[in-house]
Amino acid sequence: MKNKNICVLKKTKDFAFIIQNHKVFNNVIFKIKAIPNNLNILRYGLAVNKKNFPKAVTRNLIKRQLRQMIQKLEAKSVDMIVVVKSNYINNKYISNQKFFNEVYNLIHF
Questions:
Q1: Could you tell me the strand order of the sheet in which 6-8 lies?
Q2: pLDDT tens-place string over residues 8-55
Q3: What are the contacts of 46-50 at 24+ separation with CB within 8 A?
Q4: What is the pTM of this model?
Q5: Rounded CA gap, 19 and 74, in Å?
C-alpha cells in the first residue's frame, strides 16, 4: 500500500536547492541530506552512483529496496536526498533497513 504523504523529487532545481541548504545525517551506509518543508509530506530523491556500484542491475536493486524502506516510514515534513555508500552491498536487506531507520530517526528541525 502506498503512503499518500510521500512523493519523489525529480526536478534538478529541487535537488540543487537541497544540496545548497542541507543538513547532513549519516552513518556507515547512508548519508541523508535534508531540509524542512512546509508541505506536511516527505519528499525524497535517491543517489546511487556508478563509482560505488558499477552495474546497473545492482543500482536498480538498491533503489528498489530504498523505495520500499521509505514507503514503510512515518512521513516527516522534510525534503531529503538519500546517498548510498559502498558498504550497502556487504549487508542484508534487514540490516540495511535498520541502518536506514536509524539515520532517518536522527532527522530533526
A1: 6-8, 42-47, 78-84, 30-36, 23-26
A2: 999 999 999 999 999 999 999 999 999 999 999 999 999 999 999 999
A3: 46/81, 46/82, 46/84, 47/81, 47/82, 47/83, 47/84, 48/84, 49/84
A4: 0.92
A5: 23
